[in-house]
Amino acid sequence: MVSRVIPVEPFDLVIIGGTGDLARRKILPALYQRFVAGQIGKESQIIGAARSEMETESYRSFAAEAIREFTDTDEVKPRKLAAFLKLVSYVTLDAKGEAGWKTLSGMVQENRIRAFYFSVGPSLFGDLAKRLQKYGMAEDDCRIVVEKPFGRDLATAKELNRILARHFDESQIYRIDHYLGKETVQNLMAVRFGNMLFEPLWNSQYVDHIQITVAESVGVGGRGGYYDRAGAMRDMVQNHLMQLFCLIAMEPPAKFEPDSVRDEKLKVIRALEHVKPENIVRGQYDGDGQNPGYRNEVENRDSTTETFVALKAHISNWRWAGTPFYLRTGKRLRDRASEIAVVFKDAPHSIFDEDAGRHHNILTIRLQPNEGIELGVTIKEPGPGGMRLVDVPLDMSFAEVLGPDEADFPDAYERLIMDVIRGNQTLFMRGDEVEAAWAWTDPIIAEWQAAGTEPEPYDPGGSGPEEALFLMHRDGRRWREIKP
Ligand code: NAD
What we know:
Blueprint: E1 11-16, H1 21-36, E2 45-50, H2 56-70, H3 78-85, E3 88-92, H4 101-107, E4 113-118, H5 125-134, E5 143-146, H6 154-167, E6 173-175, H7 183-194, E7 207-215, H8 224-249, H9 258-270, E8 280-285, H10 294-297, E9 308-313, E10 325-330, E11 337-344, E12 362-368, E13 372-380, E14 389-395, H11 398-402, H12 404-407, H13 412-422, H14 431-451, E15 456-458, H15 466-473
Parallel strand pairs: 1-2, 1-4, 2-3, 4-5, 5-6, 7-10, 8-15
Antiparallel strand pairs: 7-11, 8-9, 9-10, 11-12, 12-13, 13-14
The chain binds nicotinamide-adenine-dinucleotide (NAD).
């Protein structure tokens, strides 16, 4: 199979916050990779813009260093890098003042695609939107890209939406959730809606439950200041887990088009029941011999911020009535591993002896590492030992089926930035989706605050607090092992 790279039209992309961590680790390397792949042509412009006084030459060195550090070193070829850097320039710009805006407006070209990536904290979004308009850059056809966190509750998210809506139409706003850019997340939609096999079974009649796990092995590290004000519920559940949840639970959209898909996702969030306190576990990691505990990594030594959440959710609609969705995310867990597991019900009647064992099918969608989809099916254990059943995986790992080149798919940021340039919002969150997700999250957080309870401590390197295991055990179910 030959991979098809369809070049995008020439564009101007302004990275506001171009000297920041996100630009360094994700945006610049992603653009470089798409350039090397032949998707970005030589006529495009990438303009870094930030407060620091810097010349274009120094910014190119900054970009080169970022690309060497955060791209697979084998892939950084000096000639390619030099060619890419010719696209890159820099302007010193103050979001809160007038410095640099005139220069920027002179650099951005009319009559071509223009995108402004707000790679800065959300407190600057209003200033940026206002000045883009003031300096004539917020025309109807330009696009803005905004990062998480999109608010810290419903009120702040509404306020951000209101500020952006003053200057931009919803069709111009690209709210990034990089989980949606993952190859497997899109493949999940292909598997669900491109095959006859799964969709008839995709409901409470055949699905026992669904598990979504996003586990990280790292702690908060240098992000303690931000994290302590957010916690796992705001930082992970409200956005990333919720987006995965929507894609797995939504009705088939009429078309694979932005608003068709986003309408269906929104319906899922709106049909979510409130999660009662007994169906939710908060945890906070302790230290061990090598690593400090959470409270020693943040300023507030008595912090009650959660670094782990496990919960059982229900969707009140025809398809899912009675099927629990178990969501779990946490830091300092055994491994970095994210997956969605659709656990089907047992066959209604076993024709085999009891010692043949009872088995059920599990469809696993692995997001990281080793993106891929696996279907566990039950077969007879080979050999002469009578009729014993065994589960074997039908592995749809892309590398095996498609060959290593095809499986070497773009990083989420590469795909999402190209989607911005192509003007395709399917994999971006709409304003009302974000608000609905906060409307579901806010009462849960409010109840925690009112109860004043402490999160359950858990040992690093495991699978979170014991209470999270009980959440499943009491329903006669088990979490899947956290493993890469
Ligand atoms: P950062 O602090 O490393 O960088 C901020 C950038 O904004 C710098 O380039 C700085 O010069 C610029 N800046 C600050 N004030 C400015 C002003 N008044 N005018 C012009 N430029 C100004 O932050 P970051 O980690 O790159 O994050 C940027 C945004 O992306 C934040 O909203 C963050 O929450 C979000 N985000 C970051 C990551 C990540 O991996 N770093 C991941 C997801 C989301």
